[in-house]
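Lab notebook, design round three. We kept the backbone fixed and only want residue identities now. Task for the bench partner: fill in a sequence for the structure below.
Input structure tokens:
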């Protein structure tokens, strides 16, 4: 199985982006690219080639589900696994996100000290280990 190394995190809130970057890069050792919008993620994902995209659900203009749909429509990006991060984690909401093609959903607020481990566990489950 390939190792999870490169994560793109798409989040419109600067404070949450900063905490997640610290959690994923300093604590987790991942190479992280931050994007503040779905449009920015779509514009830079092909060049960055993330192993996994962590996508905020509620963003202005292009929200998480719309960004996921646009990723799936681009052949170069369609195979990249996507997990959502959101405060909306009722079972029916989580099932809805998975029905859209997300491999998992992480609840906000998240614990910065365990976010990297959570990402690795999601990756392992996705890869079938």
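Proposed sequence:
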């Amino acid at each position: 199985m390939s190792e999870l190394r490169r994560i793109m995190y798409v989040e419109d809130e600067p404070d949450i982006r900063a905490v997640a970057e610290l959690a994923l890069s300093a604590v987790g050792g991942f190479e992280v690219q931050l994007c503040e919008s779905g449009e920015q993620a779509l514009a830079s994902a092909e060049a960055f080639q993330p192993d996994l995209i962590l996508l905020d659900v509620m963003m202005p203009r292009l929200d998480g589900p719309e960004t996921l749909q646009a990723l799936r429509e681009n052949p170069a990006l369609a195979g990249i696994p996507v997990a959502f991060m959101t405060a909306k984690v009722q079972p029916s909401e989580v099932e809805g996100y998975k029905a859209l093609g997300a491999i998992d959903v992480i609840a906000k607020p998240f614990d910065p000290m365990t976010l990297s481990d959570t990402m690795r566990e999601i990756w392992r489950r996705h890869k079938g280990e």
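Keep this in mind before ordering anything: The first helix runs from residue 14 to 27.
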